[in-house]
Amino acid sequence: MRLLAPPPAPREDRPASAVLHDEANVRVVAFTLRPGQRIPPHTSRSTVVVQVIDGGATFIGGDGAAVLTAGAGAAFAPGEIHAIDAGDAGVRFLAVIAPRPS
Asked: Where in the sequence is the domain holding 36, given as residue range(s)?
């Protein structure tokens, strides 16, 4: 067993992220977004599963958008465009990316 680091502290200049686990089959990344911060639309060649830890944000995918709060999650298919908008609340979430991006 390997203990994981806590989610990253918020940053004023951009969303904060930290790789918590990284191996050939999977990468786990923790994100912290302050109110008003966003992760712009992008794609991944891997499946991306997100789980909100604290706060809430609008998660935007190819089929639309949903506000997710603590305990909620979503999955994005390989190649699906996705973005995150922290809105007024700010959010902390985990992203599990499999297989690990190269």
From this structure: 16-98
- When divided into structural domains, the chain yields a total of 1
Task: Count CA atoms closer than 13 A to 42's CA, side-chain side.
Answer: 10
Token match 């790789």: residue? 19
Q: What is the residue-level pLDDT of the chain in tens, covering all 102 positions?
A: 888 888 899 999 999 999 999 998 999 999 999 999 999 999 999 999 999 999 999 999 999 999 999 999 999 999 999 999 998 989 999 999 999 987
Residues forming beta bridges with residue 29, ordered by sequence position: 19, 95
DSSP lists the bridge partners of residue 92 as 32, 54
Whole-angstrom Cα distance, residue 67 to residue 95? Answer: 16
